[in-house]
Amino acid sequence: MDLHWLKPLLGRPSPFTTVFLDATRAESAGDTGVEDRWRSLRRQLERDGAAAGVLDEIGDLVTVPTGARGPHGRIVVADADGVVVDRVVAEAPAQSAAVHGPLPALLPAVRAADEEVRALLVVVDRTGADLVTRSVGGGAEAEPTTEQVEGGHDDVHKTREGGLDRRSQTRAEDSWQRNAEAVAAAVDRSVRGTPPDIVLLTGDSRAVGLVRDALGQEARALLVEVAGGGRGEGVNQAAFEAKVLAAAGEVRARRRQGVLDRFATAQGRGENAVTSLGDVVEVLRRGQVAELVLHVDALTGSLAERELWVGPAPLELATDREDLAAIGVDGAGERYSADIALVRAALGQEAGVTFAEDGAVDLVDGVGALLRWSDGSTPSEAVPTQSGDQARLRTVV
């Protein structure tokens, strides 16, 4: 999961103001639903002590239409100086919410990132292609970007077979091949530069086959062919978009399952995986975590109801005040909900976050961690004995 867009929040001055707003607008003219929802959140934030200047800046952003159609949300995070993150996400919150405090509330943003699939859509014909870089399913931070690739070989039309016309046929086929190679080279460059999660190839059937065969190994490993697209008129966009969403959904499912399979395997071996809130806190503050695994109900379930103690730095967290002092944090620290503190610590060590459905893996307290490394002092998930290890067992969700 790509969380680079949240990195600017690290090291910023507190307090933070986080807004997760239903940005959906009705089709009717004069709809004020978004403005009404923001005014309600603003009153709450004012009571919580948020600065008027920061709230004015957030209001100027969220009351401007996003341009997105259908239900969608907007996540805005501001520090003491102003807005740092502003992102449109595909899923609107069930209820708009806002938090003001010493830490940004990042879990809604992380959940949106988990849904997002970065796609390179390659729409080809026999003269070239449109390369569209876009987000599918999770966020719409920016408009899709399009690069046009024209092959440069324009003798692309066959004539009827027979006599000298065979030369025209050969020249046309040679032009198709060279144009396809130019498109494939552009796709390969794009994949090497900023690798997408998926390369979607669509358009003229002959051109699709030629481009596919000319692609390099990296691009071909990400390739999915999707019928129904094209550069010309007559494309059923609704039907084609449904196929794109389905392909992205398969990528998303494979991405999650790959992490969960690795977690389950490591857990079964008793190495490089831990679960339970206390053990995950321990490995997070040591910087051992490659992937934080959260139950899908983390936003509203047990993690949101439990608290951790945190210090100024992301990896300074503990289950109680004494434990926080023991790791060298001066002062009393701050108490914050576990979901916020855990995600902050994961972001601070460039760990990913994966959400698990019921029954996907065994999670004590609704949380686990897949580790980069482990040593003799790493908490063990070995089968408990008759000893006091039994105290470690809690309800598995």
If you had to describe this structure to a student in words, what would you say it looks like?
By secondary structure, this protein is an alpha+beta fold. It folds into 3 domains: about 5-105; about 115-255, Nucleotidyltransferase, domain 5 (2-Layer Sandwich), CATH 3.30.420.60; about 270-390, 2-Layer Sandwich (60s Ribosomal Protein L30, Chain: A). Helices cover about 35% and strands about 20% of the residues. It contains 11 helices and 16 strands. The protein has helices at about 35-45, 50-60, 105-115, 165-195, 205-215, 215-220, 235-270, 275-285, 300-305, 320-325, 340-350; strands at about 15-20, 75-80, 80-90, 95-100, 115-125, 130-135, 145-150, 200-205, 225, 275, 290-295, 305-310, 315-320, 335, 350-355, 365-370. The strands form 4 sheets. It has a 5-stranded mixed beta sheet. A 4-stranded antiparallel beta sheet has the order 3-2-1-4, with helices on both faces. A hairpin with a 3-residue loop joins strand 5 and strand 6. Helix 1 (about 35-45) runs antiparallel to helix 2 (about 50-60) and helix 4 crosses helix 5. The longest helix is centred in the middle third of the chain and has 33 residues, at about 235-270. It is globular and about 85 Å long. Residues about 155-165 and about 385-395 have low confidence and may be disordered.
